[in-house]
C-alpha cells in the first residue's frame, strides 16, 4: 500500500545554489534559497515533480479500487456541528455528503427540522460559506457571519428565524470576530476591523434597523481610561444572558479567542463592568479582573459570579470563582482544584458548573454545585472527544456532541443531573464494529511516557508487515482529539494501521506539555515522533519499509526532522503545507 521512496526514479533534479547564513554562531547552508523567489525555474521544477508523481501514483495497481472505496465512505456521513439553543429552537450547521458548504438549520420544539439559511444563495463573486452564527435570546433572529471564497472577512447577516429572510447586513470586515446579543434580542455588540487593517480593531453596538456606519463604538484604544490597549490588541465585549454585568475580553496573542463560547482564549486580559455602562462607553467604570499573566483561558458566568479557568500556578489549570461585583482574583474561591486532568473549559447549567477536562487526549466531563462541593464525574460511553457543547440561556440544559476514533458522533443532553443519550447525530451508515482504537504510552528517550493512539482492524496480526501511517503535530498546544473519519475504514479494511502521536509541544497534558516541546525544547517534538515510530516497529505493527509519516503545517517540524535524522525508518513522508525551516518563516 505504501510506495517506497527508493523505488521512484527519474524525478527532475533541483539546482543546488548554496547560501550560507550564520545565526548566533551557528552556520546554516541553504541549497535551495533560490526557490523563495517563486520564479519560472521553480515552477518548471514543481510541474515536473507533479507529473512524475502522478505517473507513478496512477500506475499503482490498487489505487483505483481504493479511491472508489474512499469516495464511497467519505460521502456516507452527514456532518452536524455548530450547535446553539435559544427559546424552543435548536440551531446547527449541517453539511450533506455532496454539499460544498454547510447550511444553517433549525429544529423546532416538535422535532421538525428545516434549512434556515443556505450561504450559496448569497449573491456576489466566489462561493460563500458560514464562518459562525449566534441566535438571539428569543430565538427569532440569527446573526450569521458569511465570507466569500474562504477569505473569513465576514459580513454579518441578520436572518429572520421564521422565514429565513435576510433582514439586514453589516459589511466586512469582521474576520475572527464575535457577536453578543443583548437581552432585548434587538441589539448586539460585535467586533470588527477598520478599513481592512489588522490594527486598532474595535467593538460596536448595533441596533436592528440602524445604519451600521453609525454604530456606537463601545471598546477601542483610547476610548476609556480604565482599559489599556495596544494597536495589536483585539477588544471583545461579552454580554452574558443574565445579570447586570458585562465583560471586556482583550486578546493579545496570535490565537483567536471565541468569547461568545467562553473558551479557547489565549491568556487574555479580563475586565468587568455594569452593563448600564453601555450608555456611555467612554466613562464606563471597567474593573480589571485578570491580566495576561494570570493565565485565564476560559470563563463562564452566573447571575453574580465569574468562573475562570486559569493555568497560573496550576499547569493543568483549575477553576476559580470571583463575585462580579468585587472581582478580586487574589481572593478567588477555588471551585475545581488542579489535578491530573487538564481543565479545558466550563459552562454554567442551572445550579451546576459543567467542567470539560482533557485526560491524555481524551475528553472527560464533571459537574459541581455552584454553591460548592466536590466535582463528580459524568461518565461518557466512549473514550472520545466532546466535539462541542452548548448551553441554553434560559433553562438548565446543555447539549454535548461526542465522538471517538471508531464511534460516530452522538448527541447527549445534560439536564443538570445526568447525561442522556439522544442518539446519533446523524446516524452513520458506516460500521466500525471490526475496528479498534487503543492508546499506548511510549517511553521517550528521556523516560517521559508519550501517548500514542493506534487504530486498526481487530484481526490485525502483529507480524511486522502491516502498512502504517504515523501522524503528529506537537505545536501551539494543539490537541489531537479523537476524530471519526468514515473514509479511514478503507485503510483498515486493507490491513492498514493509523497511529496518532500526542507529541510534546501539543496540548495533551495542558500547558506543561506544550512548554515541554517549544522554544529551546522543540527537539523533543522531533525525538518523540521518532520514538513512537520505533515503538510501532518494535511491537510488530509495521516495519521501516511499510511505515509512512504524515504532518500538516507545524507537523512539518516532527516529520521533516524525523526524515532528516532517521531516513531509514520511513517508506514515505507526507507533509502538507509544512513548516520545515523556521529560520525562514518571517521571509516566506
TrEMBL record:
Give the Peptidase S9A N-terminal domain ranges: 11-223, 284-418
Q: Which Gene3D superfamilies match?
A: alpha/beta hydrolase, Prolyl oligopeptidase, N-terminal domain
> Might you give the EC number(s) for this enzyme?
3.4.21.26
Keyword Hydrolase set for record = yes
Q: Which residues form the Peptidase S9 prolyl oligopeptidase catalytic domain?
A: 483-585
Gene Ontology CC? cytosol
Which named protein is this?
prolyl oligopeptidase
The organism named in the record is Streptosporangium minutum
Amino acid at each position: 500500500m505504501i510506495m517506497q521512496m527508493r523505488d521512484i526514479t527519474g524525478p527532475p533534479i533541483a539546482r543546488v545554489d548554496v547560501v550560507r547564513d550564520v545565526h548566533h554562531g551557528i552556520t546554516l547552508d541553504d541549497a535551495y534559497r533560490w526557490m523563495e523567489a517563486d520564479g519560472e525555474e521553480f515552477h518548471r521544477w514543481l510541474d515536473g515533480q507533479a507529473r512524475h508523481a502522478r505517473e507513478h501514483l496512477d500506475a499503482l495497481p490498487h489505487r483505483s479500487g481504493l479511491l472508489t472505496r474512499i469516495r464511497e465512505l467519505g460521502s456516507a456521513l452527514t456532518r452536524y456541528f455548530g450547535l446553539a439553543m435559544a427559546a424552543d429552537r435548536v440551531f446547527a450547521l449541517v453539511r450533506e455528503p455532496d454539499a460544498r458548504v454547510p447550511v444553517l438549520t433549525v429544529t423546532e420544539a416538535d422535532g421538525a427540522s428545516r434549512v434556515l439559511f443556505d450561504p450559496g444563495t448569497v449573491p456576489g463573486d466566489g462561493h460563500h460559506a458560514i464562518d459562525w452564527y449566534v441566535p438571539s435570546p428569543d430565538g427569532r433572529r440569527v446573526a450569521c457571519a458569511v465570507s466569500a471564497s474562504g477569505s473569513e472577512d465576514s459580513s454579518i447577516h441578520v436572518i429572520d428565524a421564521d422565514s429565513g429572510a435576510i433582514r439586514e447586513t453589516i459589511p466586512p470586515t469582521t474576520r475572527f470576530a464575535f457577536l453578543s446579543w443583548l437581552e432585548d434580542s434587538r441589539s448586539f455588540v460585535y467586533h470588527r476591523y477598520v478599513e481592512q487593517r489588522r490594527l486598532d480593531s474595535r467593538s460596536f453596538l448595533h441596533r436592528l434597523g440602524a445604519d451600521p456606519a453609525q454604530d456606537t463604538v463601545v471598546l477601542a484604544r483610547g476610548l476609556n481610561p480604565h482599559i489599556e490597549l495596544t494597536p495589536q490588541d483585539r477588544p471583545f465585549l461579552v454580554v452574558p444572558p443574565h445579570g447586570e454585568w458585562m465583560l471586556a475580553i482583550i486578546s493579545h496573542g496570535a490565537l483567536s479567542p471565541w468569547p461568545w463560547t467562553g473558551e479557547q482564549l489565549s491568556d487574555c486580559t479580563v475586565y468587568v463592568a455594569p452593563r448600564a455602562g453601555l450608555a456611555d462607553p467612554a466613562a464606563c467604570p471597567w474593573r480589571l479582573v485578570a491580566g495576561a499573566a494570570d493565565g485565564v483561558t476560559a470563563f463562564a458566568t452566573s447571575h453574580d459570579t465569574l468562573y475562570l479557568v486559569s493555568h497560573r500556578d496550576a499547569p493543568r489549570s483549575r477553576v476559580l470563582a470571583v463575585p462580579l461585583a468585587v472581582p478580586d482574583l487574589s481572593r478567588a474561591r477555588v471551585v475545581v482544584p488542579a489535578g491530573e486532568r487538564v481543565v479545558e473549559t466550563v459552562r454554567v447549567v442551572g445550579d451546576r458548573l459543567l467542567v470539560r477536562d482533557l485526560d491524555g487526549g481524551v475528553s472527560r466531563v464533571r459537574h459541581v454545585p455552584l454553591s460548592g462541593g466536590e466535582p463528580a464525574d459524568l461518565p461518557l460511553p466512549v473514550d472520545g472527544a466532546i466535539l462541542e457543547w452548548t448551553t441554553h440561556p434560559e433553562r438548565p440544559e446543555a447539549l454535548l456532541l461526542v465522538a471517538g476514533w471508531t464511534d460516530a458522533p452522538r448527541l447527549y443532553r445534560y439536564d443538570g443531573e445526568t447525561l442522556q443519550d439522544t442518539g446519533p447525530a446523524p446516524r452513520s451508515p458506516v460500521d466500525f464494529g471490526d475496528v479498534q482504537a487503543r492508546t499506548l504510552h511510549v517511553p521517550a528517550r528521556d523516560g517521559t511516557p508519550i501517548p500514542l493512539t493506534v487504530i486498526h482492524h481487530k484481526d490485525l496480526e502483529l507480524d511486522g508487515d502491516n502498512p502504517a501511517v504515523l501522524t503528529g503535530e506537537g505545536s501551539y498546544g494543539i490537541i489531537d482529539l479523537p476524530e471519526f473519519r468514515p473514509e479511514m475504514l478503507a485503510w483498515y479494511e486493507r490491513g492498514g494501521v493509523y497511529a496518532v502521536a500526542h507529541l510534546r509541544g501539543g496540548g495533551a497534558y495542558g500547558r506543561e506539555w506544550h512548554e515541554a516541546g517549544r522554544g529551546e525544547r522543540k527537539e523533543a517534538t522531533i525525538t518523540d515522533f521518532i520514538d513512537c515510530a520505533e515503538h510501532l516497529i518494535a511491537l510488530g505493527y509495521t516495519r521501516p519499509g511499510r511505515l509512512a509519516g504524515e504532518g500538516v503545517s507545524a507537523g512539518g517540524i516532527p516529520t521533516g526532522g524525523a526524515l532528516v535524522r532517521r531516513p531509514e525508518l520511513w517508506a514515505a513522508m507526507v507533509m502538507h503545507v509544512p513548516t520545515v525551516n523556521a529560520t525562514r518563516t518571517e521571509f516566506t
